[in-house]
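A brief tutorial aside. Many learners find it easier to grasp structure tokens once they have seen a single protein encoded end to end. The record that follows does exactly this for Competence protein ComEC. Read the sequence first, then the structure, and try to relate runs of similar tokens to stretches of the chain.
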Amino acid sequence: MSGTVSRSRLALGRVDLRLVLPAAACWTSAGLLVAAPGEAAYVVIVLGAVAAGALVWAGGSSRAAGRPHTDGPSWPARLLGTVMVCCAAAALAGLAVAVQAPDRYPEGVRAAIAAHEEVTARLTVASSAVPGPRAAFGGSAQVRFRATLTTLEGAPAHRSEPAPAAAGRSGRTGLVVPVVVFARVSESPPRIGEEVRVAGTLVATDPGDAAAALLFARDAAEVLSPAPWWLAWANTLRAGFAAASGTLPRDGAALLPGLAIGDTSAVSDDLDSAMKLSSLSHLTAVSGANCAIVLALALLVAAALGLGRLWRIGVGLAVLAGFVVLVTPEPSVVRAAAMATAVLVSGSMGRPGRGLSALAIATLCLVIADPWLSRSYGFALSVLATLGLLLLAAPLSRRLARWLPRPLATVLAIPLAAQLACQPVLVLLSPTLPAYGVPANLLAGPAAPLATIVGLAGCLLLSFLPGLATWLIWLAWLPATWIAAVARTSAVLPGSSLPWLGGPAGVLLTVACTAAVLGLALRRTPLVLRILSAGLVCVTVGCTLGTLVGTGLGRAAAFPADWQIAACDIGQGDAVLVRDGERVALVDVGPDPALLTHCLDTLGIDTVDLLVLTHYDLDHVGGLDAVIGRVGTALVGVPENADDALLHSRLVEGGAEVREAARGDSGILGGLAWQILWPIRGSPLMQTGNPGSVTILFDGAGIRSVFLGDLNEEAQNALLAAGPIGQVDVVKVAHHGSRDQSAALYAQLRASVGLVSVGADNGYGHPTTSLLDVLASTGTAVVRTDQDGMAVLAPTARAPAVGQTSVDEAAPPGAAGAALRVWTERVGGTRVGTTRVGSVGGSG
């Protein structure tokens, strides 16, 4: 018996869990309270009282038990002690929120946000500028960067607000408001540490967001003062390395700056999508592993030079600080640096640091220093990946060694442990499972350290030995290219992304399945638990394969062969297909080529005979790469600038005929007749931007439909005044269901179905209640992609097929008011009038 107890204590000693629960309590408290900072003070008081009560109770329990001091505290005392420490940690997080929240939302900033007024602000740049979305109305390219708003100067002099009101908000200094800035591109983008001035509009973010507001600048940022010397050196190195890497070929050139110094601005959307689908996105930018490699090299060099322990620790801390400045303090880097600092400080006191304890103390300190970090996906994934490596890598390696050579088992256990630990968070980002994630990491992982070390050496030597640095950069390009090739190959393999349940239910299911896999894989699991685990794994695999067939590989077969309209689920944006037989039209292409490609592949669409680009906002043209070379004719609006004209050139280079569309243009698509209703050629009114959205009407083959782009109320009324449209079966609702709508237009259309192409949690409140009320008043049933997923519509005869219900069985087909069948992607479908619309099973 004594031997068993000793082994048990030894096993527990290898995994020190004493700081894990307090760290988890601190993280949970911060994550909840940053969304409701006004309640933080009350929560701190309650938690403090609970901690004090637990301390008193634990002390009283120990004295009452009369246990000798050598026996240690009783188990109730230990339990209460754990509760006390966890409450104290949670209270510290709440106190940090209560102290920091007022500085993030000062009165002047709140007033500017509420008034929707233009302000002039001074900011300190906190991140490198990366390409952002096109401006909502101006159409010009933008850059996006994080910054700290330090001074709110008020609105420009030309603003019409009375002087006293403006003066009341002018000259506010000493602010520390974190913002994300969207500014026009300039010749020299802002660099970290520079002080800049911008004039623009502040928009509030969601509660708990790392940024307190978004600042949409009217022009490019004006640099007022350069970065301090301790940041300027890193800016110079980053810019030089990015320029040198940009001369290299293709994907390797795009990935190398991210692997070496954390600069991901050159990574294209399709490459980024491939990295995510293959579960290699953690390699796209600098991670904690890079930090560990650099620190280990620094300590080895210091030891080789014969430095003492304290000197080695000092060198390690200095290298850590410099590395964080160079690669910028992203969450994963900060976590790794804090953890390494804990280990080094512990070593300086002669106490070798344990990995789990160092991770817990680093998490505690970082969350207390910045409670909003608790809601960072990057931080969560970094912590969980490290936790998985510390807890799971070794036992998984031992288990795999029963069937594989030990070196291979060890190499395979590392990505498997990290994947299992991170998957519950990953399903929140994308409700899918990467089928080839572990093999892809197994192939690409060994190349990452080489790209990091050699690339970083090339970056540091670029200013002193440019010839040698160039050779090193070329050498680092090789593993970067290999990683990109693995990502692209994995992403296009069949079933690379398996559908999974999303939201909190998906997280719980993922946790349960992870526990089941570990229960089967690790030793000493009771037989009953092994049987239950095997059952859960079998059921999950069966459901996943069934969902894959229902919503992925088999979805095209499940949809009706005569479908005429399909609204792709591409988030906040438009991409709607209209088809008759083999002829296909596509109205807008959404914001992301990968999402549009997935939709086209699902529906089996190879070519687009007619492409309509209603206007040039990113959420309507961003996915154009998915159809370049596959378009016959493209109808476009009036270009607003050279960037818009470049889109036309790219379509022409891909073999398309490009024509500017206007009212009166018409044509045939199979058995469908189409005509352009808006804009009016030659009229100076509303020719560009949202009001100039190309509006197209399709008629024939059973469904009459109209697509309104992003027309606002004024343009919709002008469209109505230009001539009658008549009743339609389907209307693609304008501007994702914003409130800027004409009730008179929808009253004339009297559509059976209103398609709302909109992203979940889009932040704009789309579709608005006022728009939904307008559609309800006209008897138009709403089908929205954020709730229903991809929607497919087809005409039907009087007797609907099994599993589908017609919208209006009494109406004759072939005219407005025709019977429709509607399939929606997600379970439960949607309601049209008083009938249930059929759905293709699966979580979408």
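Self-check: The longest strand covers residues 142-154. If you spotted this yourself, you are ready for the next section.
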